[in-house]
Fold:
Amino acid sequence: MVHTHSRAGSGDRRRARALAGVPVAALLVLALQGCQDPAADGAGGKPSATAPGAAGAEGSPAASPGQPTVSPTGGTAGTAGDPCALVTQAEAERLAGTALKPGQDLEGTCAYTAPESGPTAQVEVFAGEPGKNYYDAERGLGHELKPLDGIGDEAWLEDGSVFLRASGQWVAIRLVRNEEPSRFDRPLEELARTVAGRL
Structure:
């Protein structure tokens, strides 16, 4: 599905109301996607919140040395509330297909961004209320969400994003790449399955 200018204007106002509970820093990340012209994204994916660039998703880099890992099962309450523990840097890099900076935790949201010298890439993880609010906003805007079976209590896939609920916790993962969004459907689904096992 190709997102058009309908995401701007009145759509942004509706999203702002729907996301009233999201921390300001997380709202800023979401708002940036509506501030750019989707036509600038040659692949028809979501607008980028980072500097322009292009690169293939092939050849994911190796995990960064010393990067902490989280067991894919038996998640703790601390993990459930920590978006940067729900998706590790290595997993974010594997999803984006490029190197990313360490995650920045912004009160319920974790953002992994590409270095300035790299291609356009960003992985955002919304945990708890920010994740539920992001899901509600996309539903409220009438975006097409595809159900995913066998992931937590429920899971939904959208171009460039995946939403899941497990053990009463909501998580949303959003990928920004200048690539055809459907290329990332399977990696998003697999990452959602891993995250559900941590909740």
